[in-house]
Structures are given as C-alpha cells and as structure tokens.
Amino acid sequence: MAKDYAVITKAIVEHIGGVENIDSVTHCMTRLRFVLKDESKVDAAAVKAIDGVMGVVQQGGQFQIIIGNNVGKAYQEVLKMGNFGEGSEIARGEKKEPLTLKKIGNNILDAIVGTMSPLIPPIIGASMLKLVVMLLQMAGVLAADSDTYIILNSIGDAAFYFLPVMVAASAAKKFRTNMYLAMAIAGVLLYPDFRTLMESVTVGDTAAHFLGVPIASVKYTHTVIPAFCMTWILSYIERFIDRITPAVTKNFLKPMLIILIAAPIGILIVGPAGIMIGEGISAFIYFVQAKIGFLAVGIMGAIWPLLVITGMHRVFTPTILQTISDTGMEGTVMPSEIGANLSLGGVSLAVALRTKNSELRQTALAAASSALIAGTTEPALYGVAVRLKRPLIASLITGFVCGCLAGIAGLASRSMVSPSVLTVIQFIDPANPTTSILWIVGITLLSIVLSFVLTLVIGFEDLPEEKETNA
Fold first, then answer.
1. Dist CA 185 CA 230 (whole Å)
2. How does pLDDT run across 264-316, given as a tens digit for each residue?
3. Is 176 helix (H, G, I), strand (E, B) or coil?
4. Rounded to the nearest 5 degrees, what angle is found at the Cα of 8, between the Cα atoms of 6 and 12?
5. Which residues of 158-172 are buried (b: 16+ CB within 10 A; e: fewer)?
6. Is 459 helix (H, G, I), strand (E, B) or coil?
7. CA separation (Å) from 82 to 25, 78, 274?
8. Residues sharing a CB contact under 8 Å with residue 365, sequence separation 6 or more, in sequence order
9. Cα angle, residue 365 at apex, residues 441 and 354 outer, rounded to 5°
C-alpha cells in the first residue's frame, strides 16, 4: 500500500517542534536533514514510531530522519509547510552560528556529504553504462575501435570527465555562492587549450607560467576535491567583491572580478593543493592496505554498516573516484561493500522467514529486495538490523569475513556502483575474468548465506503483532 507522505511529514514536523522550530531542511538519497532552532524540542522516540520512518540520526548539527528511496516525496511535502531549504535564514547567510572545533569538523563532513549525495545518481548511471560497455567488449560483441563502442563509452565517461563542473554546481548550493560562476571557473580546468598546456608540461621539459608564476601540471578530469575547494574559496571571494563594487557596476564588474580573481587562485594554488590532498588520502589507504593486507578490506566490511548509520560513508566517495581515476580501479572500500551490503539482504531474508509479525515480514522482504537488487541498504539497516539489534551483529561478522576474502582474492572495482547481486560485475578483472568471476560468485553467495544462517543462529527478539481493537 502506498504511503501518504503528506500525513507522514505532518507527524514528523509535529514531533520535531513544529514548523517554527525548523531553520532549514535538505535531503540526500534516503534522509531528510533538518537544521533545528532547538533540538531539545524533538521527541525522537515519537519520530521513530511514525509509520514510514526507518530511523533517526543526530549528527553535525542536523536531525536526520531516514525515509528511504521515497525521501524526495517527503521533502516536497515538508517544503509545502514553510519557507525552508534555500529560503531559510541559514541558507541565505542571514543567521550565523558560533564556531567550535567540533562544529568545524561537522561542517566539513556535512559539506562533503551534502555536495556528493546529489551526484550519486549520475555517477551510478554512468558507471553502470561503462560496465556494460566493458562486458560487451570482453564478450566480443563490440570492437574497441567501433563507432558504437566509442559513442557508448563517451556517454558513460562524460559524467566523470565533467565531474569537476558537477561538483562545483553541487558545492555552490552548500556554500551559498553563485552556481554558474562556480561552474564557469571549474570549466577552466577542463578547457581544451588549458588541458593541452598541462599535458605539454607533463611530457616536456618546459614549465607553464601565469604572470611569471609557475603552474603545476595537473589533470583535473575525474577529480572532486579541487572543484570542491575552489567553490568554497569562491564563496568568500564573491562576498568580498560584492562589498567593494559600486551598485551601478555590479552587473558587469562584479562577475568579471570574481572570475579574474578566483580562476587564477584555483589554477595556481587551490587546484594543485586539492589534487595533493586527494592523492594523500589515496596514499594513506594504500599504506594501510600494504601493512595489513586483506584485513584492511575485512575491517572496512565490518564497519561499513556503522558508517552508513552515521552517514559518514559518503565521505569516501571522493577518495574512491580519485583512486579509480589514478589507477583505473579501487580495491579496499568498494570490495568491502560486497559483504556489507549483501549481508543486510541475507539478514532481512532470515528475519522475514522467522518473524511472526506480518508487518515486519513485509518490511524485511522489501528491505532484502532493496539491498540485494539495488544495493540500497538503508531500508534493511534501519527497518530490520538496527531495529532488532542482534541481526546487525550477523551483518558485521559477515562483512568482516567476506571483506577478508575479497581482499585475499584481490577484487577491485572499475566503477563506483553500490555492490548488489546485479552490480558485482564491476569487480570482474578484464585481465583474468574467469578467476575473478568465480571469486565474485562465491563471495556473493557466502555473503547472503552466512548472514542468513548467523541471523537464525543468533536469533532476535521478535516484535509482537499489533492486535486490532474494536472501539
């Protein structure tokens, strides 16, 4: 039965202190994210009890409510209740909050997650298309030099090639700066003449200069951090230029000065620094994996559901994209998600089999389908594992075991798609397809079966069936 999100969101708003307690609201793939004036007015238990709410998380100055795949519908219903979102005082920059070290850390985390979450659909869509093209080429259906292959591969690769522009557009919303100026400045990094200049510096002995200052040779396609950092800097430059330009000149002088100042800063300082940060994070992950080997993948598989609970899993998105851009594959975070994701599907199937609660059975079956087929684990995580507690233990154990096996097998992803039964093809190694396929099939089956059996062995406290009472 379809849920009435007008009713659900009305109940949510009532239990978080009413419309007057909301400063702003945004949403990501599965969560409503509220910034509240007074969190003491929230009745978290009552919010959790609302039919249609899978869970709540308080993090980074936000009260996050997990809705699931239909979060967009709930968000639109919330917007109908008041002037939130980009119309709020916080979004307009009219309200400032005191900064502490904790607040700064939370703001950074929120900015990264908030920037990357809207980009997940095009990244996933492009990744899946590239995987299909790769498989067609491996199967001999498409020749690598055919026009059809080139066009399909271009369609799949475009989202990654122009990723800096997409990041700039998304980050501009978070940093409350002009989106189109941010996109124009990020576009400089991809401009053909600029890219040719950077490539000539890379392969030649000469250095490029801007006003006598040497420019570091950097390849910006497929990158996240440079455009993210540049847009953050742009938000301050725009406000400064706005203060010093006369009103009569703002239409033409203000945007010209912003571009003229921000673009060189990005090219000379922010862009190269952003690349260094990204490479440093990737190098750290490589270092950890080199020291403890397959255990690194196992540990990541064990803690991945916990990262999803806190929303911190999106922090790894820039690192994954950077690593794939640098090496063509990612072999720590993505392989760990096989066991983590599919185990939540197996857990949900076990709960559906064992429970006597019809409502929980329906929730568990829907959650299992979401995790196993789409790789979206929040319904299983919040609707089943966290809700019943002990099944979460089965998932964590399975994530560790299967993560270790993925590390031993040397599985690595060639794209960034949430692993599921249908998307594990991203781990096929073109250089050794047969062996990698056997490992993938084995780990996939083990993830589901082991989590299923562990859930039945560990057990869980079943929810009592609600009985209808006659008035």
1. 8
2. 998 998 888 887 877 777 778 778 878 888 999 999 999 999 888 766 777 78
3. coil
4. 115
5. ebbebbbbbbbbbbb
6. coil
7. 10, 7, 38
8. 348, 349, 352
9. 95
Other C-beta atoms within 10 Å of 249: how many?
A: 11
C-alpha closest to that of 296 among 332, 260, 323: 332
pTM across the whole model = 0.68
HSE, CB side, 13 Å, CA atoms: give it for residue 471: 0
SS (H, E, C) 333-395: HHHHHHHHHHHHHHHHHHHHHHCCCHHHHHHHHHHHHHHHHHCCCHHHHHHHHHHHCHHHHHH
DSSP per residue, 14-40: HHTT-GGGEEEEEE-SSEEEEEES-GG
Catalytic residue numbers read: 28
State the CB neighbour count (10 A cutoff) for residue 359: 12
Contact indicator for 234, 181 with CB cutoff of 8 Å: yes
429 vs 325: CA distance, rounded Å: 17
Distance CA 463, CA 311 (A): 27
Helices 225-244 and 179-188, axial angle in degrees (round to 10): 120
* 164-180 mean pLDDT: 91
Distance of CA 243 to the CA centre of its chain: 35
Q: Within a 10 A sphere around the Cβ of 252, how many other Cβ atoms?
A: 10
DSSP string covering 249-307: GTTTHHHHHHHHHHHHHIIIIIHHHHHHHHHHHHHHHHHHHHHHTHHHHHHHHHHHHHH
Is the CB of residue 395 less than 8 Å from the CB of residue 344?
yes
Cβ burial, residue 219 (10 Å; 0-12/13-18/19+):
middle
Backbone φ/ψ region at 299: left (φ over 0), alpha (ψ -120 to 50), beta? alpha
Length of the chain in terms of residues written: 471
Confidence of residue 216 (pLDDT cuts 50, 70, 90): confident
Written as six digits, the tokens of 6 are 């007008």
Cα dihedral 231/310/340/400 (nearest 10): 110
Q: Inter-axis angle of helices 390-409 and 433-458, to 10 degrees?
A: 160
Q: What angle do CA 373, 378, 15 make, to 5 degrees?
A: 145
Residue 412, Cβ neighbours under 10 Å: how many?
20
